[in-house]
């Protein structure tokens, strides 16, 4: 997931309780995916002559499983290929020798209520949630901000020194003055697609070249370097922003406009349950297939292995070779894995995509990300310090190597989990050469400087688990994050699902997943692009939506992403 944003200013004079909720509605493509999913007419249909037609789905992460699930419901036969495990970056792992209910989220771990399409599926499979303990969140017992060797203990923002309030106000002022924040949020809340597009068109043209840090520097409210430094190190919401400073400010605005970093919830038992449960789920309403059919049953329990080659064959088919040597040919395919796989792990024909799409794939910029978790005997951090009465340990933000430390409670006197460190980009790369034990040793030494009286190690009951997503062979990074000037590239990838204007020999292969999304790093984007691809496959095979529930491709011409000139 991405780093932090504050809960920014509300529309003037409008009580929070009376405002419609923010959703990930735009700004690039203001389409109501949650309404599309909830409509009784369903997502569409294909001609009966196409029932049972095989469609390749490459990648078994959330996007691939959602796409396969919806294609199956339409009466098509998805054939899912997965190189590693079902779930992708919804990866939940256990600790050797510990209870099975003690888990660590190696990828996505916190989800905002604005991810309404994501929650459609989470609710569908009956996932239980709980508040996620972000810094200064209402359900977080306490937070420690440690900068330049000085620690500040807080339960709310008001407990921190005045300079932190000044930084928050500077950020809010920057959003208002430089990005029309309140006006855009109101348009999103009201789902006013045309107003969203008008505001965004102006901002895209004005800001596509601008970095996040450059945006701050141009704001009169952030003229103080000290304020920019504190904001980069701490932020307000889920951690420091400085690892995002080189990225396009447009990426950041998409997050703040849609409330993507507000009011997070975690999944009890782990987020990987969502794709795993969808994989096993037997839909109550589906076409062609008998009741009791699931993705698992269509695959004999397991997906096909890794794809090693993709090429076009006669009749504009897509031919897939997998790691077992099996070769199958499809009239339609959906590619949901990280796009750099097309440049490295998979042998591909250039004819798979138009040349400018290959350029966009090659220019995709990934954020690195590392985490390390340890299991502990109990939530000892809630013990009151006998001298101060404060919590023994707190959710911690710091400029030290650990950057962000999260305390994950499973109940009084029950084993618990600490995420000793969660870092991005350069901070993540610093951990790359170290083993899990070496990482833990450095992290514990760093935290000892903040909590000199706390012996964390004596509470550890198992070996640490760690991940560096940039070192994962089927990912090579945590999530996409556009650099300045990348808007045009992202537009090509996101809009690829509408293929009527492509040459006929470049149709039939559809892109989906985090790389393709405008809201990278958030599971909502994986779901939305999966639904785009489902519409694309349906349309490609001669199907259509019900007139009462137009799909994303049906309304494309009225809400298409802003197009910037190429010359």
Name its key features.
4-stranded parallel β-sheet; 7-stranded mixed β-sheet; disordered N terminus; alpha/beta; 567 residues
Describe the protein:
- The chain is of the alpha/beta class.
- It is built from 17 helices and 21 strands.
- The protein has helices at 33-38, 62-73, 116-124, 162-179, 181-189, 193-207, 212-218, 225-233, 249-257, 273-280, 295-298, 355-362, 425-429, 436-450, 487-494, 523-540, 556-559, and strands spanning 54-58, 77-81, 92-94, 103-105, 129-131, 143-147, 150-154, 265-267, 307-313, 317-322, 327-330, 333-335, 347-348, 366-367, 369-376, 395-398, 404-408, 416-424, 465-468, 479-480, 509-511.
- The strands form six sheets. It has a seven-stranded mixed sheet with strand order 7-6-16-17-18-15-19.
- A hairpin with an 8-residue loop joins strand 3 and strand 4 (103-105).
- It is globular, with a radius of gyration of 24 Å.
| Relative helix content | 25-40%
Low-confidence stretches: 1-16
For the biggest sheet, the summary is: 7 strands, mixed
What average pLDDT do the residues reach? 94
Spatial ordering of strands, largest sheet: 7-6-16-17-18-15-19
In short:
With 567 residues, the protein is an alpha/beta fold.
Task: Please outline the helices and strands.
Layout: H1 33-38, E1 54-58, H2 62-73, E2 77-81, E3 92-94, E4 103-105, H3 116-124, E5 129-131, E6 143-147, E7 150-154, H4 162-179, H5 181-189, H6 193-207, H7 212-218, H8 225-233, H9 249-257, E8 265-267, H10 273-280, H11 295-298, E9 307-313, E10 317-322, E11 327-330, E12 333-335, E13 347-348, H12 355-362, E14 366-367, E15 369-376, E16 395-398, E17 404-408, E18 416-424, H13 425-429, H14 436-450, E19 465-468, E20 479-480, H15 487-494, E21 509-511, H16 523-540, H17 556-559
Parallel strand pairs: 1-2, 1-12, 6-16, 9-13, 12-21
Antiparallel strand pairs: 3-4, 5-8, 6-7, 9-10, 10-11, 14-20, 15-18, 15-19, 16-17, 17-18
Helix pairs in contact: 2-10, 2-16, 3-16, 4-8, 5-6, 12-15
């Amino acid at each position: 997931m991405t780093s932090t944003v504050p809960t920014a200013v509300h529309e003037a004079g409008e009580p929070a309780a009376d405002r419609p909720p923010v959703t990930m509605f735009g700004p690039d493509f203001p389409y109501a995916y949650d309404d599309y999913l909830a409509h009784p007419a369903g997502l569409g249909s294909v001609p009966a002559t196409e029932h049972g037609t095989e469609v390749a789905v490459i990648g078994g992460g959330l996007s691939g499983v959602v796409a396969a699930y919806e294609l199956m419901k339409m009466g098509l036969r998805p054939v899912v290929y997965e190189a590693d495990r079902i779930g992708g970056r919804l990866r939940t792992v256990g600790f050797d020798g510990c209870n099975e209910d003690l888990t660590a989220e190696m990828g996505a771990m916190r989800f905002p209520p604005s991810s309404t399409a994501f929650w459609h599926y989470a609710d569908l499979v009956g996932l239980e949630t709980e508040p996620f303990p972000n810094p200064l969140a209402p359900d977080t017992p306490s937070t420690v901000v440690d900068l330049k060797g000085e620690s500040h203990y807080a339960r709310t923002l008001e407990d921190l020194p005045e300079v932190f309030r000044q930084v928050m106000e500077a950020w809010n002022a920057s959003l208002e003055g430089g990005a029309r924040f309140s006006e855009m949020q109101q348009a999103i809340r009201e789902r006013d697609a045309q107003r969203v597009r008008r505001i965004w068109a102006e901002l895209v043209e004005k800001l596509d070249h601008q970095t996040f840090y450059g945006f701050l520097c141009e704001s009169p409210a952030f003229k103080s370097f000290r304020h920019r430094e504190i904001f980069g190190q701490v932020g307000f919401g889920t951690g420091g922003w400085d690892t995002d400073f080189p990225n396009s400010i447009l990426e950041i605005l998409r997050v703040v406009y849609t409330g993507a970093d507000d009011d997070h919830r975690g999944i009890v038992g782990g987020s990987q349950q969502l794709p795993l449960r969808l994989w096993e789920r037997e839909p109550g309403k589906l076409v062609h297939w008998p009741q009791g059919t699931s993705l698992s049953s269509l695959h004999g329990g397991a997906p096909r292995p890794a794809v090693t080659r993709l090429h076009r064959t006669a009749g504009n088919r897509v031919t897939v070779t997998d790691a077992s040597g099996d070769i199958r040919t499809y009239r339609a395919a959906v590619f949901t894995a990280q796009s750099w796989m097309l440049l490295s792990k998979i042998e591909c024909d250039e004819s798979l995509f138009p040349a400018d799409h290959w350029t966009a794939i090659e220019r995709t910029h990934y954020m690195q990300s590392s985490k390390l978790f340890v299991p502990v005997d109990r939530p000892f951090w809630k013990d009151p310090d006998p001298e101060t009465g404060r919590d023994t340990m707190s959710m911690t933000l710091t400029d030290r190597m650990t950057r962000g430390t999260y305390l994950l409670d499973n109940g009084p006197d029950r084993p618990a989990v600490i995420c000793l460190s969660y870092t991005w980009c350069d901070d993540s790369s610093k951990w790359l050469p170290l083993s899990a034990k070496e990482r833990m040793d450095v992290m514990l030494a760093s935290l000892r400087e903040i909590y000199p009286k706390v012996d964390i190690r004596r509470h550890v009951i198992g070996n640490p688990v760690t991940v560096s997503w940039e070192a994962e062979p089927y990912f090579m990074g945590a999530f996409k994050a556009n650099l300045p000037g990348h808007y045009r590239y992202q537009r090509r990838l996101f809009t690829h699902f509408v293929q009527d204007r492509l040459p006929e020999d470049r149709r039939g292969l559809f892109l989906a997943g985090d790389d393709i999304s405008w809201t990278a790093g958030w599971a909502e984007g994986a779901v939305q692009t999966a639904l785009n691809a489902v519409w694309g496959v349906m349309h490609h095979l001669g199907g259509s939506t019900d007139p009462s529930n137009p799909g994303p491709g049906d309304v494309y011409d009225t809400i298409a992403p802003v197009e910037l000139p190429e010359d």
